[in-house]
Design goal:
The complex is a heterodimer of chains A (318) and B (360). With 318 residues, chain A is α/β, with parallel strands linked by helices. Helices cover 34% and strands 25% of the residues of chain A. Chain A has 3 domains: 113 residues, ATPase, nucleotide binding domain (Nucleotidyltransferase, domain 5); 145 residues, Nucleotidyltransferase, domain 5, CATH 3.30.420; 37 residues, no CATH class. The chains are: A alpha/beta (318), B alpha/beta (360). Chain B: InterPro entries: Dehydratase_Activator_Redct, FldB/FldC_alpha/beta.
Amino acid sequence: MKRKAYLGIDIGSISTKGVIIDENNKILAECYLWTEGNPTEATKKVLLSLKEQFDPERYRIVSSGTTGSARKLVGSMIGAKMVKNEITAHAVGTTTLHPDVRTILEIGGQDSKIICVENGVAVDYAMNTLCAAGTGAFLSSQAHRLGVEVEEFGEIALRAAKAAPIAARCTVFAESDLVHKLQVGCPKEEIIAGLCKAVAGNYLNNVAKGKKIVPPVVFQGGVSKNAGVVRMFEEELGMPVLVDENGHLMGAFGIAVLAKESQKEGEFSFDVADMEFRTREVTCGKCANHCEIICVYRDGELIDSWGNRCDNGAIKSR
Amino acid sequence: MEIRIDDRKKVAFPRFNHYDYAIRYIVEQGLEAGFVLLPPATKETADLGSRYSPDYACAPFKHTLGSLIEAVEAGADILVETGGLCRLDYYGELQKEILRELGYRCEFINLAEYMGGKKKEWLRLAKHINPKLNPAKFVTGVYEGVKMAEYIDEIEAAYFKNAGFEAEEGSYKKVYRQFLLEMQMAENKNEIRAAYQKARQAMSGLAQRIPENPVRIGVVGEYYTVMDEHSNQYLQEKLIRLGASVHRFMNVTNCHFRAKASTMLPKISEYARYSMGPTTTWTINSALDYAKRGFDGIIHVKSFGCTPELDAIPVLQNISRDYHIPVLYLSYDMQDSDTGLDTRLEAFYDMLERKKKVLQ
């Protein structure tokens, strides 16, 4: 008999991640690529890549889950049994791999969060509220301005003798700080180190405000791949910060674990990668709320819709 | 042939959750004047309010201004705005100016001017609205209207406490909506009481299915945003749909008629020695109470830039640390999308539920 496997997909604003795990939470297949503003296409690509790594002779996928900002759309697309927010998914994923973790720091493309863990279960969390200052999007826009690839940031920052002081609370102010530093002839690596320090400082002052950071600390999300930010965190906190090599896949891994735990099983087929998915936005005209209802079509047939605040706006498939 | 023209003046108040019905009762039955009952607020209301408000005014200002503009458009003769203990006290004045500049020529009564005034002043105001006023009927009307507000608070609290555990989907909502409908139609105290008793009886007869790890959440925060469903994007409704039991101490009954700041301050003396303004004492008192009673989590609600509630946050952080109870802080401006809120609430609920499962 074939062994059971579970699929998890994490569709973020910047990147889309997918993993397949077996019953012992071992990763059988993984994929990481850019969303490029098109979650359905990105998911198809992820599924095709996972299909190549997957051995259908030995395993069969019995359940699937989606998380991230496009979880609902992709969830109805692949018929996921588990559709959950990314905070829960990250907490579950990390505590599964690191049962002794106490604090999870996470900086993603457009959000950042902190999760406090006790006895292997999340007990408190906080998330950035109003803007995306000090997240991956901020770093990549600054990288663009400096003419460097954001992937090289960490390496360059580590070479700097000291970090230039830069305010990271607001992206606009940070940018004027940065321009000023460039004009006075500050070396590029010091500015980059300053940016990394600003990201860490902003995170600790805003998102982690009022939260006690207890070791062991795990740092994940796209920005955790930046060695400069990791070092700044270690300096600020005065404790080692662990970055898991699979840190970028943690959301997808977590949702796969959740799908496994839910024990809801259903047929999953890689065929969805070949189907055509289309979404359409309808503005409901039945009251002044003008809800934007999102309809998802598979090969021209309506499979799901959401976004209506009341029953008057419900659109049902025939 | 006698032509009867309704020459009663039509009074309007900004929307405020379901208290519109009680205010309407006071105006129609007590003052014997007309009342403009507005339909539920929509996105249009919020848009209207934000368009004509100063950018940095807090969200309640924008919501109430939107309501007032819609009320004039609906034919109100007299607009009434209340006063309060924070910036709210100045809002009536400002809204009056804004409406005048927009060219609306209706009368505007700013209750801030009457706060702390003598009873005689209030009676004069009532006589101004209705020259044929019967003072005895007015007093009875106010009393019965207040009673209605108390009943609404009680049924609402029962609804949010239990509906998350309902065995049949929508059974609580059905009773609750019927009750609110009857509150809209009630014309005397017997009708009010009958509807209240019916709703109580119906709710206590409904079957519940209490989950393995029931989650209890206490909601605290700033007066208007925490009570007005439209302002807080139906926060409590979202929580009961996730399956939680939701408690909110702050309501008109507890804020104005029952709990007094002077009796609450000694209870919270460990955390705050003096009052920090409008509703912070209620916020801290109820948060501490939820923590002591072993609730699973607290949600703190305020409008963006609300200084008194901002001052309460460090105190809540202390309570959170001492009693090991997570607090979710929500700050409302004029958002369009529910997505961010949904993600946070779902994560909060999941966390509390998993925590209970593992740590029990």
